[in-house]
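Researcher: Please translate sequence to structure tokens.
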Amino acid sequence: MKKVRVGVLGAASLTSETLIRFLIGHPSVEITSLNSDTFPGEKVEKAHPIFKNFNLPDLSEFDPNKMKKDCDLVFSAKPPKHGFFYISQLLERGVKVIDLSADFRLKDPEIYFKFYNRKHEKPELLKEAVYGMPELYLDKIKTADLIANPGCYPTGIILGCAPLLKEKLVSPPNIIINAISGASGAGRTDKGRNLFLDIHSNILPYQWGTHPHTGEIEQELFRLYGEPVSIFFTPNVGPFEHGIVTYIYLSLKDKRIDDKALYLKYKKFYQGKSFVRVFSPDEDLPQVKNIIDSNFCDIGIRFDKKTKTCVIVTVIDNEVKGAGGQAIQNMNIRFGFDETDGLRFKV
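Model: Translation complete:
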């Protein structure tokens, strides 16, 4: 079978390392181009020493005509606001793109400006972009030329809320979310919250109520619920490398519901979804350590009768289901492969 030729923009990033790890093991992929503005002309091990002696292309400057010749699909791991030119050039040449930044997730340019403090440079592409959450938009992903890969926090939050919002079981639509991410969520750049002294034996809150992912989360919850959903989102960085644990608190219309009924609703909603695992009331709640280096999203649900509050716990690996793994899952769907290809791990 002919392999899909793929390239990576921003190949020196932390996210790209995870992406390339999985692509190397994909049975239907050939990595044909690795672009880096930071290390052009260097071997890939200059950015990622783990790939020494792997048969991978050298890091190169961006050349859209060469990428058109060499690639069927390009993953863009450029930071938000830095990929507009690259992506538009590739799309004009007929190359399919999966963008791992936030630049094409938000459908409203004004909301993009609000959260990223910059005018959207390619608003004409927003209608074309498909939000790449396979569990919700499978059919649209199958024919998309531009896929906006979801953010890490939004992935766990949206999957955690979707069954209840889709059935309009939530009232009022006000949701409180507390999430703790591993330090890798900050990437390789020093942002003052991923230094060892800041997070060792500590949990560091940041951007409460103002995190850029807030707009993305509210947009997708609105699409599920059919009317505006208000969230208060509190992200934190914890003393571990990979993973995100999220706690979601909301009120339900039916105050008589129990844990088993909620579990059955979630099981039915995610039936046949390879990478969502729903935990029964008889099991322990999901834990970060059990999803590291995997593309799973684990979900547990409890209803507290005393406060009449539904609590949802989700865990994902922020670099896999929250980034590179979900991007490969989207590629598999777009090119007609088994959704799990390249994402199975050996036990």
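Researcher: Any highlights?
Model: DSSP finds ten helices and 14 strands in the chain.
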